[in-house]
Amino acid sequence: MMKLIFLGPPGAGKGTQAAIVSKKLGIPTISTGDMLRAAVKEGTEVGKKAKSFMDAGKLVPDDVIIGIVAERVEKPDCALGYILDGVPRTIAQAQALESAGVRFDHVISIETADNVVEERLEGRRVCQNCGATYHLTNNPPKSEGTCDNCGHALIQRPDDSAATVRHRLEVYHSETEPLKAFYQERNVLSLVEDAGDIESVNRRIMAVLGK
Ligand code: AP5
Ligand code: MG
Q1: Strands (E), the chain
Q2: Do residues 205 and 17 lie in contact, with contact meaning Cβ atoms separated by under 8 Å?
Q3: Cα–Cα dist 160/156, whole Å
Q4: How many CB atoms lie within 10 A of CB 174?
Q5: Is 14 a catalytic residue?
Q6: Nearest ligand 1 atom, CA 36
Q7: pLDDT digits over 156-196, tens only?
Q8: 198 lines ligand 1 (CB under 6 A)
Q9: Could you tell me which of 43, 25, 35, 21 has the C-alpha nearest to residue 66?
Q10: Is there an atom of ligand 1 within 6 Å of 9 CB?
Q11: What is the pTM of this model?
């Protein structure tokens, strides 16, 4: 049983690393960003509530997030643990998980400098069908513009425009970074340096997990 949180600014590689660790450990990734994007695409109630916040690079209200996560972690595939990617993102979300009795083995904060974030997100391309993530130069797909996994077209996320990215970074520093102190107090926080390629960062994460 392994319950993990991946923390870090936009573009830190939370989703990229969660996909790798998920495969290695055989536990699912729960990404609120991916769940919300799927809800927007399907036009559900949650999607309708979330869209304007996401487009503006603002946080979706805590009650919406707490609801979708509480429901997701009850699914049978979470029985052996899971990785939370992009949640919790506020102290209120962290407290809600704690009040529900959830305890984490490791909270991994990927430490990415602000000036790296813009380059990462400018070059990011994602598959709208399966959510796989690429980078034009750091992690290109085998065939340009096409997903390696499912063959669908790759797109740029609408919230990856320079102005929205700057706002997302501000929100990260003011709302989410305080979670580091929250989990430090609970002795589960590890900082992982974001240097080198995707594989080097992954090696550091696996070392923290003792794997
Ligand atoms: P979300 O989807 O969670 O976005 P984010 O936190 O801003 O993070 P990103 O997905 O942009 O970055 P990432 O760290 O996953 O990086 P990636 O692996 O793609 O949230 C989106 C929105 O949804 C929020 O703004 C908010 O509105 C809402 N939301 C979601 N959760 C919420 C919550 N809990 N509460 C409230 N609102 C919520 O990597 C980035 C790029 O870099 C890729 O191109 C990748 O290939 C490349 N890369 C990765 N690692 C490396 C490396 N080591 N070297 C070189 N390139 C690398
Ligand atoms: Mg992500």
Answers
A1: 2-7, 29-31, 81-85, 106-111, 124-127, 133-135, 154-155, 189-193
A2: yes
A3: 7
A4: 10
A5: yes
A6: 23
A7: 999 999 999 999 999 999 999 999 999 999 999 999 999 99
A8: yes
A9: 35
A10: no
A11: 0.97
